[in-house]
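User: Please predict the structure of the protein below. I'd like the answer in structure-token form so I can feed it into my own downstream comparison script.

Assistant: Understood. Taking the following sequence of 762 residues as input:
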Amino acid sequence: MTALDLRLLPVAVALWLGAACGLHASFGVQLLPALLLLGSAALIAQRLHHPSLLWIVALACGLLLAVLRVDAASPAAVTRFIDNAGVLQFDAIVNGEPRPVEHRGYGGLEVQQLLRAPVTVVRLRSSERTWQISMPATLQWKPTEQVFAVGEQLHGEALLRPDDVASRSAYRITARGPIRVVRDASRGTALATQLRQGLALATHASSGDAGASLLPGLVLGDTRAQSARMVDDLKVSGLSHLTAVSGANLAIVIAAVMWLLRRTRIPSHHRHLLAAMSILGFVAVAQPQPSVLRAAMMGGISVFALASGERRTSASVLWLTVALLLILDPFLAWQYGFALSVAATAGLIVLRPLLRGLLPSGILGDALLVTVSAQLATLPILLMMGRPPTWLSVPANLLCEPLVAPATVLGFVAALLAALSLLPVPGLAPIAMLLASVVAWPAVIMAGLIASIAHFGAGTGLAVAPITSLPWCIAMVTLVLVLRRLGLRPRWLAGMATAYFLISACLPAGLQRWPGHDWWYVMCDVGQGDSSVFNLGAGDVMVIDAGPDPQAERECLRRLGVRHISALFITHFHADHVEGVRGLVQYMHPDRSFSTGLHEPMVEWQRTVSELPAQPTELRAGDVLRLGDNTVRVLWPIPEQLDGTPNNGSLVLDVERAGVHVLVTGDTDAAAESALTLPVTAYAVLKVPHHGSRYQDPSFLDRVHPALALISVGAGNDYGHPAPATIDALRQRGVRILRTDLHGAIAVAVRDGRLSYATLSG
């Protein structure tokens, strides 16, 4: 096995570190002392003839280049001008395709549909002054019938708010009034946009078919037609990288081009030139954004590494490419996409040869080798991002591996055929689109299979079994490598790896310490939102709200060993209570669903209803349901007393078992709390209303008289929840307070008439 060439690795790391620091530094107080310190260190290293001289120089270069780029992107004089101005006129060039986003008001009360796109601001104008600049920004505006394309120059009026320039957006621009196009896109950019639209038309991406909407993403990273459920399924299954323009997309296209060229009589140097031209063509069609340019370089390295097997040379080229990319674009230093791309490519170069002897040879072994190498290499970064991969990601990627390459190649050919419709030849357009549709048809089927794998996987237990223990994973891989060196047979190694996989991913929840076998009520830790689960026995539960995060909801249900959901109650339709419904439905369909009768915000109500098997049954005060040995009494809302706000339209539920009562209050505020008629004078558990906000009825706690108060709240939230006044009121009454932001998920049990609790954090 050829040794790795690591000489350029410290240079690349030092350059990366310098750029990362420089993006958050500035001229003067921060930069000059750092350069003086590095200059002194460089002089010492030179006098001692120490190799660290090159590393220090790289660190200084990265720092200086990043500071210069930040200052060029957002000059101090322009920043002061913007900060002191109100609404300004702007001219900006669109750099990426507009994507729909939702702007939420306080607590999700107002949901506003917007379009957002990365732009470069080239001119700012007030009544007093005009600036000619080149500043990266993010433009957002209300949807209109007019669609803006990449490369067009727009003019309008807007209010500018500072953004994170290190993430390649110095300001967020919110348009005020109409936006008009003052200059069309260049011919090349317009052609690339038409090619992307041609593929979408050829595949009928807007039809709603899963494969048709997924294929443009596989080929060109065009995800506009994908539903929210598709995006979430791909993310949960560890397949979202397939629809991002990455080195993998380009590697597949280049590999197909090289395979075809090898079967011709074209001289080798001409073949290399054609392969390089195919890279340029892919970049042009996928739009030359920074992520695409990064993917072009990483994809070229990946193909070289896989095709040549030159491990030493491939590593050197990788470190050199990282250094060049950071010099050309220091903004990459703080982008996780760049780090993941580098890690995956390094995994193919470094880990793939090491793991080759552990897996069987052949097509299946090679596919598994590539998948495992990339997964292991990117695992530390995913853990840093707070997005640990699940045990589903490896088998899901392995199943999709044979489908991705042919679907991508056929899709790219279909895009080229669709482009023929742009030629000014009479009668050519319908023929070209017909041919493109025929070629795309098998690719759509394969993309549909990938979508099915993602959808099926998102509903399995493996989807909510995250790989969160990096030390244990490293220890397992190290042990396998050591035993392989000692001569242990591959079948025994495979058996050990399988056992570790099963124990880690499929351990029954009943064998885990938390929440205990006799739990009754669990408040899930879903961040800034609400989700409660009541145990009906034998793995059967009822769920009240599903929180804001589908993955967090699935994880809570898995930890509890849920095997059946008898009922889902939705207290109201704010995002922090219903966005996780998608995850619950993917985990398991509820038999029945119930909700408040107030359908606000309408956007969330429509989305939630579309995700459930049937429209929820509306409840009102006085309704009573029997679920297992639990009695659920609806105490609110009383429709005649509602004030029209979603919070005070929340369901308030009294859940009782064997004479012990839990009060679940949704997001009710003082108006609803004061109007509640409570069936008992003391509750074992109070789910504190509205995440412990300050809008509480002072007499409410005296009437509830809880022994235990649980607050579902996200750490570091922007709403000031829970309010100090609410916490003080609970403490003055001697109530035990537990919070999900401090204690994690909370389980409550009743043993022999005595209340006990256990928190996931211990």
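That's the full token string. Residues 552 and 657 are 27 Å apart (CA to CA).
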